[in-house]
Amino acid sequence: MEKKVKIIISTIFQNGGEATRALEMAKIIRKHQPNDYRAEIIFLSHSSPFEKIAREEGFEVCTIEPKAKFANFHDDFKTRFGELIGDYDVAKEYLESEIAIYKRLKPDIVLHGFYPIAGIAKRMITPHIPSIAFLPLPLTENYLDEIKAFPDELPMARLPKWLQKFVIKSIPRKMMLKNPALRHSVIAQAAFDLGWDKSQPLRGTFDMLRSENYLINDFPFFYKKENYEGNFLFTGAIYSETISKENNDPEIIKWLLADNKRKKVFCTLGTSGDKHHLIEVIKVFNEGEGKQWSAIILSPPAICDLEEAKKYVKNSNVYITNQFVNAKEINEKADVVICHGGQGTLQTAITSRTPLVGIATQPEQQINLEHLSEFGMAERISYWNWKATYIRKKVSKILSHTTYKEKAETLNKLSQTIPTKQLIGERVWDIIKNLSL
Questions:
Q1: Partner of 285 at 20 to 30 A CA spacing, among 26, 96, 209, 244?
Q2: Where do the DSSP E strands lie in 345-396?
Q3: Contact, 327 vs 268, CB < 8 A?
């Protein structure tokens, strides 16, 4: 007899990285579905351009209140340092809505990304809802032993790297847990006011994302795997090509086919950057060595109006677009990528064997970029150094030293040894088979 299982996937569905990771997770689960099971997979959304993509892929989407008002989720959340949601009323409304939809849909299991609202709501339901957290990092207390640098937002981040490592090692674990980057106190207060059991800790990120099972979507060789329990599975990185399409823009095709000696640079800051970051990238190609390079620059509407971005261009070899592109195809032709530290963007560069210059717009992005920098295929620039002259200098360094490209090729080969989709599919269905359906 066929067993039915209802799966809810909850992420910040407005965010490109979270949404595309979630879509890939859903496709993997469906592909590995045993013959005697039938999965009903439902995405939760507060209104997102990715809803259409999810439906086209054959999944259900449940759009819930409050509806997103802005293209960038940070604006809806009123995000500030250490507070994913910086406004109490917003946090409470999102949490109430999440709890209500769980009660109405009665899922057998919840899969959630880096989204404390989902991590908290699932544990405020009776009866208990089993869960799997799919995260870009192993976000539990033991992860503190992996941290080597302070978040860019803190003054201590300006210390030399060797000194940062020394200081961090000398900080007691209890003090580390009070790191302001981890607190999310606004969300915690909303949870307490809605009935969170105060006997259960809710001190910050680790508690809020607590789950019975974790799928860590990153390469295992970047971590001390022995520090993590058996419910942590390092799967390798996943990213979805769902939103990619054939590049049919004549300007992009011309760039891809160009056989001149100009070095090609692809710039993609996603929706996690801001207008200042984008403008500094455009200026890279207006002076000095940058005038000899050609570039494709993505200008998401959530970050900067296309016509405004074009006003800063002084190089005829630079093309700016606000459309979705086949990023992998462009990456493969690029000599260097300038990007943010989102996992999907970095993974695309890795699979394309393309070295990169990156900026972290969130603490987890900083860690992603540090991994690639230490490996030798990337240069990370702190946000206070994100200026056209400095970016140009780093791009030039990568173009001048073949070791960056060689390291990118090495990491690509290592990544191919990890059967990511198989690991995820088998683990998820092993967990589901042990549920009382």
A1: 244
A2: 356-359, 378-381
A3: yes
**Residue 85 DSSP code:** S
128: amino acid identity, one letter = H
Which residues face 419 on adjacent strands?
none
* Residue-wise pLDDT tens digits, 370-426: 999 999 999 999 999 999 999 999 999 999 999 999 999 999 999 999 999 999 999
Amino acid at 99: I
- Residues shown for the chain: 437
Non-local CB neighbours of 390 within 8 Å, separated by 6+ positions: 381
pLDDT in tens, 11-60: 999 988 899 899 999 999 999 999 999 999 999 999 999 999 999 999 99
The pair of three-digit structure tokens given for residue 180, joined into one six-digit string: 């302001």
* Pair 407, 416: CB distance under 8 Å: no
Region for residue 298 given its phi and psi (left: phi exceeds 0; alpha: psi -120 to 50; beta: otherwise): beta
Pair 389, 290: CB distance under 8 Å: no
Domains along the chain with CATH numbers: 3-139+177-236+418-433 (3.40.50.2000), 250-415 (3.40.50.2000)
What predicted TM-score, i.e. pTM, was given to this entire model?
A: 0.89
Instruction: Give 336's contacts (C-beta < 8 A, 6+ positions apart).
Output: 263, 264, 265, 266, 354, 355, 356, 357, 395, 398, 399
User: d(Cα 329, Cα 278) in Å, to the nearest integer?
Assistant: 22
Q: Which residue has the tokens 């009776």?
A: 126
Q: Are 431 and 214 in contact (CB under 8 A)?
A: no
pLDDT reported for residue 70? 85
Q: What's the rounded Cα separation, in Å, for the pair 99 and 94?
A: 9
In this predicted structure, the answer to whether residue 242 has a pLDDT above a threshold of 70 is no
Phi, psi values for residue 195, rounded to 5°: 110, 15
d(CA 360, CA 374) in angstroms, rounded, equals 15
